[in-house]
Amino acid sequence: MTSIAVRPAARRPGQKAVQSLVEDLRRRIEGDVDDSSLAKALYSSDATNYRVVPSVVVLPRSRDDVLVAVAAARERRIPVTVRGAGTSMAGNAIGPGLVIDFSRYLHRVLSVDPEARTAVVEPGVVLADLEAACAPHGLRFGPDPASGSRCTLGGMIGNNACGAHAMSYGRTADNVLSLTWLTGTGEVITASSGPEAFEAVRGLGEFVDRHLQVLRKEFGRFSRQVSGYSLDHLLPEKGRNLAAALVGVEGTCGVLLEATLRLVPRAKAPALAVLGYRDLATAADDVPNLLPFRPLALEGLDTRLLDALRRAKGADSVPEIPEGGCLLLAEVPGDTPEEAERAARRLVDAAATSESQVLPAGEQSARLWRIREDAAGLAGRTEKDDQAWPGWEDSAVPPERLGDYLRDLAGLLDDEGLTGMAYGHLGDGCVHLRIDFPLEHDGTLMRRFLERAAALVARHGGSLSGEHGDGRARSELLGAMYSADALAAMAEFKAIFDPEDFLNPGIVVDPAPLDADLRRPRAVELHVTRGFAFAHDGGSVTKAVHRCVGVGKCRADPRGAGGFMCPSYIATREEKDSTRGRARALQEMLNGGVVQLGWRSPEVHAALDLCLSCKACSTDCPTGIDMAMYKSQTLYETYRGRLRPRSHYSLGRLPQWLRLAVPFAPLANLVGRVPPLRKAVLALMGADTRRSLPRLPRAPFRWDLRSRRRRPGPEGAPKALLWVDTFSDALDPEIPRAALEVLEAAGCDVEVAGPGACCGLTYISTGQLDAAKSRLRNTLDALIPHVREGRTVVGLEPSCTAVLRSDLLELLPDEPRAKELAGAVKTVAEYLTSIDWTPPRAAEELLVQPHCHQYSVMGYGADQKLLEAMGCEVEVSAGCCGLAGNFGMERGHYEVSETIARGGILAKAEASPDRAILADGFSCRTQVRDLAGLESRHLVQILAEALRKDGGR
């Protein structure tokens, strides 16, 4: 291994220089200049193991902003790091000086030329947005990393990203035509290819001439040799392609201002061959045998990742697949579906396995691709649910060496007592692997393993990185695969473009130690003794918040694919309002450097303020993070024994207020109809005065003794206990009446739970956890006797039902009855689809707004099944309605709440005005009525109406 000098850990620039820079930039640029402690916390990490706190963050609005910011930093010798979505896994998007985030404003697709098959983009364009702009023309950008729903083209160019289809369409470097490039000396050049390409850069031609031998011998040996600089593109025989050579320099040689990209035709009707093998190495052995069939992609997946998904989301989360310890997904092209299927079957016939299936383009194959895209998050937990980390997550070897390399790598893991679940681009020889390094202690074992792994991959003729770049994780190890001459050539190349070494210093050239600036060892270990149990993380808040490794799926808009996360980020597009941003603030709280006041830190509360507590992250984020629980715990720790915000006393204790208000319903409703009185009451509550007050019925359901009587069914009838929550009881009593009508018609033996069974939801969402526990214990007392009589508890309000299925177990972990009750609770649809009953026909066209908590905890599958059985034509509005209980009512949240609704359910309602709205959640019904005057119904109301039309059957 060639020895390589390392620099000290990241050094922060002087405070006077930083203050001068901040003041200068605030005067001279239009973009955002943020040196707050919250910004420093948010940008202190990317999707890696590393933590480097920046001095200032700039979000430029124009190219001129970038030029001014970089020049001002250079004048003061302050390092500059550029960043897109922050999904870098090697630590190449963090730095101690000025961090420039292109994703906020510079995200335009400037042009798409279908004839020339080119696109011009700004650095902050998200790949998915470029794909959407190209799709109408039957085109796409070839490289497609799994993070394509949120990663930016600037980041892809910085790392030379590849993705599943790089084996067909090439790496990013192969698909870039020209770059508008700001060098470290302040010059703006156009980097392209051809004899004249070198004229833009003084000394570049002479550099190539001096290093011809080493460039030909050591660079570009195989397609996934991404580690180091790709200097082979500068060779005469490769077209003197400066643009391609600057792809993958990781922000160390300049700043991208604009890129012209090559586009390729979209595959017309690809089929998916799914092959099962004993293990990943055995699958890799078969790769050379399958490459002659020219698959578009050849992806491997350790099936333990699928087991992790089943544990988290249930057996139905994974489609039926072939047996084996590894799946190989081979996407095969064709002009027609039939042609693609025939080609896929020919590949299957040649494979060295009998376990196989062929899937046409459609939902089942799309589900497998979505699982593959989530692999980075799924691999972040081991089989024992321990944290697994990047570091050696991107090694690559020539495909013909892959099987042997994987066996040797498995042996190295065993030798060091480490584990990990692998996946990756087997067709290109690239393997992704997260490993359970004990980083809660230090980086000693990680260093030893990485040094041995680097030597191993070099013996197999491979690369430390196949697409993620070297960053802080691997730059120190480049001597394992490059000679001293090659390392010197890379240093000289950087010096041509950045002679003062202020662009992303410590990366590739003159690297920082790979075990410097590690984030996890700095974190204080914090176990809670009250509030939630954090049972999945052994009671450790520290482990819980570090579930977030920064993959950034919360920065995507998943609604088109049926996802719900993260409504606040979708509305504001600000990092602080993403799940990741909130996790970073909590992590920094534990580090104690930037965020210093613990649970009461203003930075933590600013990050959590716009969290809707929708729980979507607990389902949509592959790491299983639950920000709703973390927010509730934060509010609990902050305000325990202290004066709370007014909304905690009003909205947080809504069940109490409703009990007091019911006898005065006419007066309360009058107040709600008189604007000055309504606004005064809302202001007193700490609510937004633009909101309405809920209209109270003449009498709550609990006063209706006739409705509450038991309805015995025939002998052997399924036994149901209808649990009427506070919202249904005091605000919508017609819903439990309709539920009784439906359950009777279904032939059930129905009993109504007595009053007082409260889930404590409003107390939980406002962090009043002691009160919530008290109410949950009362609920156990009220419901468990019925459960032990064999009754299933049927819930009406999805958010309340979700509490008994999930939060109950976290709040009362030592109460054996909690698990007993949680296992006996079902939604109406879950219950009705579990018994022998044929629902009535109701040929309605419905627009459905699932409640976030139902989506996240119970799922909406049973409801869809029931509605289909009724003959309803259903359109589902994915994403939160925006009200989210107390959130949308509270002062300061109205605009975000409205933005979420108008981008989701209200937009769909406007597009489909003839569809009736189905919304089981009280919040969802309130939101569409408040903002658009639209009425909506609960599922049981639709069922009851259909029964009446069907003669009561």
Mean pLDDT: 95
Could you tell me the strand content as a percent range? 5-15%
Q: What's the end-to-end separation, in Å?
A: 80 Å
- Number-wise, the strands total 26
Q: Which regions contain 5 or more consecutive residues with pLDDT less than 50?
A: none
Shape annotation: globular
Largest sheet: 7 strands, antiparallel
Q: Report the helical percentage.
A: 25-40%
Strands in their spatial order, largest beta sheet? 15-12-14-13-17-18-16
Structural class: alpha/beta
> What would you call the quaternary organization?
single chain
Secondary structure tally, helices: 41
Calculate Rg over CA atoms.
Answer: 29 Å
Structure description:
The structure is a single chain. The chain is α/β, with parallel strands linked by helices and 953 residues long. Helices cover 40% and strands 12% of the residues. The protein is built from 41 helices and 26 strands. The strands form 6 sheets. Strands 15-12-14-13-17-18-16 form a 7-stranded antiparallel beta sheet. Strands 5-6-10-8-9 form a 5-stranded antiparallel beta sheet. Strands 1-2-4-3 form a 4-stranded mixed beta sheet, with helices on one face. A hairpin with a 4-residue loop joins strand 17 and strand 18. Helix 10 packs antiparallel against helix 15 and helix 15 (402-416) runs antiparallel to helix 16. The termini are far apart. The mean pLDDT is 95.
Short description:
The protein is 40% helix and 12% strand. It is α/β, with parallel strands linked by helices and 953 residues long.
